[in-house]
Specification:
Blueprint lengths: L11 E2 L9 E2 L17 H14 L4 H11 L26 E4 L4 E3 L3 H7 L6 E3 L1 H9 L1 E3 L10 E3 L3 H7 L5 E2 L8 E2 L1 H12 L3 E4 L5 E4 L6 E6 L5 E9 L3 E9 L11 E10 L2 E11 L1 E3 L15 E3 L1 H4 L8 E9 L11 E6 L1
Parallel strand pairs: 10-12, 14-17
Antiparallel strand pairs: 1-2, 3-4, 3-5, 6-7, 8-9, 11-19, 12-13, 13-14, 14-18, 15-16, 15-19, 16-20
Length: 343
């Protein structure tokens, strides 16, 4: 938790003319009224504004309206972490909480377990005062430096971090140690590596040039700004393996995060006789180990030489269609089909 950040008192002017430009220490607040002759710093201006809220009007109703408009005051405290953890499971307390006769606070579900190790764990009383604290104890997201502005309840922080879209990922380019959120990686891809970036709509095909081995192409979902990376590597003597990955640190395992399916196919517009296609669920990766080679990755589209170098001389197109599916629907996702080639 952050350092205690609270203003105590107002800054006083030194009555001595020889020290008129310096701040004096507050020597007591007997009646809570501070006289300010002039302001010297930005901090003093903020203190004056707070003084106006406390003293500004004799109308209690107006003061209440002013306070409500400001919102409930918030403070940051540093407290021992054990105060917010269950004495039985050692995980963050979630209301409702209970206390045994030895004053051990435990989760509702841990009462039976705690009773096996604590002699005073036979009887429990509810702790509404503890519930009030654990419901309101909040902390900034651990990925604040990467762009997340969320302030989350402490006992739910782990769930938030598992699904946070700002969790950092790595740049997969060899020798590049850039680390940031997927959204910020996009700017890095374009500025540092000149990788093309395109927006795509889910459920609609998007045409790209088939990337050469080592080529990359970033895609961004228009609906949710999810980042995908298309990559190509050599497979065999002349074929190219194309794969697609969702760039996110928490992967697809976190509860409630969206899932995706993709269809990749390569074709020459003027020659519909030859086409190769692949359908699969989109894997997720934080790209910490870079992009795996074709033989190490999961599903990929193998584009053979007779499509890459069609007799017409026309450059082949890589068609990409991404479908977003709900987390609840992933259990019914049909199995991925192997790469097939139609002639």
């Amino acid at each position: 938790m952050a350092e205690l950040q609270t203003k105590r008192g107002s800054q006083l002017e030194n009555a001595d003319e020889g020290h008129s430009g310096k701040k004096a220490r507050a020597r007591g607040m007997t009646n809570g009224v501070v006289k300010q002759e002039h302001q010297e710093t930005e901090g003093e201006e903020e203190d004056q504004e707070e003084g106006e809220v406390r003293q500004g009007t004799s109308d209690p109703g107006a003061a209440l309206v002013a306070t409500e408009a400001m919102g409930e005051p918030q403070i940051s405290l540093r407290l021992g972490i054990t105060l917010f953890h269950c004495r039985a499971c050692l995980r963050p307390l979630k209301p409702p909480t209970f206390k045994c006769d030895a004053d051990h606070v435990v989760c509702f579900a841990c009462r039976t377990v705690h009773g096996q190790s604590c002699p005073a764990g036979a009887a429990y009383v509810a702790c509404p005062e503890v519930d009030a604290f654990v419901r309101d104890a909040k902390q900034p997201c651990a990925f604040e430096e990467f762009g997340c502005n969320s302030v989350v309840v402490y006992h739910s922080a782990a769930d938030h971090h598992r699904a946070c879209p700002w969790a950092p990922c790595s740049c997969p380019s060899p020798g590049c140690d850039f680390l940031s959120s997927p959204a910020r990686l996009l700017d890095h891809f374009a500025a540092a590596h000149a990788w093309p970036i395109a927006e795509v709509s889910y459920g609609r095909p998007h045409a790209l040039a088939v990337p050469p081995p080592g080529g990359r192409h970033a895609l961004v979902g228009e609906e949710d700004r999810r980042v995908f990376l298309v990559s190509a590597s050599a497979v065999g003597a002349a074929a190219v393996a194309v794969s697609l990955v969702c760039v996110r640190a928490n992967g697809g395992a976190a509860e409630g995060v969206p899932q995706y399916r993709c269809k990749l196919w390569a074709e020459v517009a003027s020659n519909k006789d030859n086409m190769t296609m692949m359908m699969s669920k989109v894997a997720s990766s934080n790209l910490a180990g870079g992009l795996p080679a074709a033989g190490e990755q999961g599903m990929f589209l193998a584009v053979p030489v007779d499509i890459l170098h069609d007799v017409s001389g026309e450059a082949p197109l890589l068609m990409v269609r991404i479908d977003r599916i709900s987390a609840a629907a992933k259990a019914g996702t049909p199995p991925a089909r192997n790469t097939r080639r139609l002639q």
